[in-house]
Specification:
Layout lengths: L3 H7 L2 H30 L16 H7 L28 H7 L2 E14 L14 E14 H5 L4 E12 L26 E11 L4 E8 L39 E11 L2 E11 L5 H4 L10 E12 L2 E2 L3 E12 L3 E7 L5 H4 L3 E4 L2 E14 L10 E11 L6 E12 L9 E11 L1 H12 L14 E14 L2 E11 L10 E11 L2
Antiparallel strand pairs: 1-2, 1-19, 2-3, 3-4, 4-5, 5-6, 6-7, 7-8, 8-10, 9-10, 10-13, 11-12, 13-14, 14-15, 15-16, 16-17, 17-18, 18-19
Length: about 500
């Protein structure tokens, strides 16, 4: 998703890791001190529900994970907007006043820093040992038009962001599973439009219809649990879901519509139709996110997902999802040319496919509660796992399997901290491997920035999220990349770093 400018920045990681991060760190530190002191002075308790770790990019997935209420929604039929614990939680009662009048405003920043403690593979002068930082600031504006103008059940949602930096994984040759989820696609501009859409909620939350500029993978293949981790194999969405680049995901939106129904209290089914756009993550074609014309529209994506969301024993929440998507945008075959022979041998153009698919099965389940809290946010252990499969004719990542454990409130004195472990395995498509073998035998350059045959890759992460105080999360991270970029000729890499998330409003 990131352009060549970010690639160049990634190869200058020592500079970013030392001087750039010092500047960012100083800005972050002093800004946090000022904001914290001011927030403590201005804040008053608010009556709205708290979503402790909600990040702006995960907002839509919270609506998927929450079953509709046991009783009719009052005083408005629009689902309640999330309200994370923030530094400026309710200054002079402003937040409560805005929400009573139908306005929900969120502002947060996220920074992800990683550095390799292992040296890169010898023989590649473009690789180096270093570190880098990637970050974003984001603003979300939710408006309940039933409160504002008495339009029953109607709300609008808009998210804008700004991004900077690059991940450290490029320094040791990996372009497959990034060490930081935030690494590009934001246009390198002050304001980049992510989403702007309207949503009508009917029958007390049992039916919701949305349309506008939307990010498909904020609604489908989505869970707020994934960004408990920092690596891009999982955070945002399991990476195989966005393999071809046509499934829109934060921070890039496309024209689309989505219909979600809840026939049962703990079950839903949703269908979407999204217009695919060439280069939605590139600077040249979608730098600001405000390009609304049809110049680059080349097909559609039609995802379908069904979910079951039980609560075992009334307290142990689970989410079980199965889905698939059809893509009509033209995509090149990974092995065959227009005559059906290996393009790596003939040099002819690759065969184009006008229909391709991908599918997924995703699950998470809370296994045990450590102790009960009066706010119903009980600490406990949650497991998550999943499998994603892509059409092997056109994909780079043929399939991905992942698993993780998240322990919240492991230590009695730290009820909001999280200890998390994740594992991801990605297998490359057979056609990619066969084409690269033929190209290498001829001494030709390999696709996907590869310097060896791409077969499979493993990413593991261990982190501990510390809630320093209201609205501030600091998360030390350790990552292991086995077979970076899916290649056996690159040595494994160990990275250390941290993630910080500050919710200002």
């Amino acid at each position: 998703m990131a352009g060549e400018r970010l690639a160049m920045l990634g190869l200058s990681g020592r500079v970013i890791g030392r001087s750039g991060v010092v500047v960012l760190g100083s800005f972050f530190r002093w800004g946090l001190i000022v904001a914290s002191v001011t927030g403590l002075v201005w804040s008053e308790p608010a009556a709205a529900n708290d979503d402790d770790d909600e990040e702006t990019g995960s907002e839509p997935s919270y609506q998927i994970n929450d079953p509709f209420p046991d009783r009719p929604m009052r005083p408005t039929t629009v689902p309640e907007f999330g309200q994370p614990k923030a530094i400026f939680y309710n200054p002079y009662g402003l937040t409560d006043w805005l929400r009573r009048h139908g306005i929900g405003l969120l502002f947060d920043t996220t920074n992800e820093y990683t550095g390799a403690v292992t040296p890169p593979t010898r023989g590649f002068p473009e690789y180096r040992q270093g570190s880098s930082n990637a970050g974003q600031y984001a603003v979300s504006l939710n408006m309940d038009w039933e409160r504002i103008a008495h339009v029953k059940g109607f709300a609008t949602h808009m998210v804008v962001t700004g991004r900077y930096g690059t991940p450290a994984n490029r320094m040791f040759g990996d372009w497959l599973n990034h060490s930081s989820e935030i690494y590009g696609g934001g246009g390198n501009v002050v304001v980049h439009l992510v989403m702007a859409y309207g949503e009508e909620t009917l029958y007390d939350g049992k039916l919701a219809i949305a349309a506008g500029r939307m990010a498909e993978l904020s609604d489908f293949v989505a869970s707020p649990l994934y960004c408990t981790f920092q690596n891009n194999a999982m955070c945002g969405r399991p990476r195989a879901a966005a393999d071809t680049g046509y499934a829109s995901t934060f921070p890039a939106g496309v024209w689309g519509t989505r219909v979600r129904g809840r026939p049962l209290h703990h079950a839903y089914i949703q269908f979407g139709l999204y217009l695919t756009e060439e280069g939605i993550f590139s600077y040249a074609m979608n730098r600001t996110g405000f390009k609304f014309n049809s110049a680059y529209i080349n097909g559609v994506r039609m995802p379908l997902e069904m979910g079951w969301e039980p609560k075992i024993g009334g307290t142990l929440a689970g989410h079980y999802k199965i889905g698939a998507a059809l893509t009509t945008a033209p995509q090149p075959d990974s092995f065959e040319d227009i005559t059906g022979r290996p393009y790596a041998l003939t040099g002819l153009p690759q065969r184009q496919h006008r229909a391709s698919y991908n599918a997924w099965v995703l699950m998470d389940q809370k296994f045990v509660t450590y102790r009960h809290r009066p706010d119903n946010k009980d600490p406990g252990l949650t497991g998550l796992w999943g499998f994603l499969y892509n059409d092997k004719r056109v994909s780079l990542r043929n399939w991905q399997v992942f698993a993780g454990l998240i322990s919240r409130g492991t230590f009695r004195g730290r009820p909001d901290d999280t200890l998390a472990l994740a594992f991801s395995y990605t297998a490359m498509s057979p056609g990619v491997q066969r084409s690269q073998e033929l190209l290498r035998a001829q001494g030709k350059a390999l696709p996907n920035r590869a310097t060896g045959i791409q077969r499979h890759a493993v990413v593991m992460e261990l982190n501990y999220g510390v809630h320093l105080f209201r609205g501030v999360l600091f998360q030390p991270v350790a990552e292991l990349f086995m077979r970076p970029n899916g290649q056996g000729n690159l040595r494994d890499a160990v990275l250390l770093g941290f993630k910080s998330h500050v919710e200002f409003l």
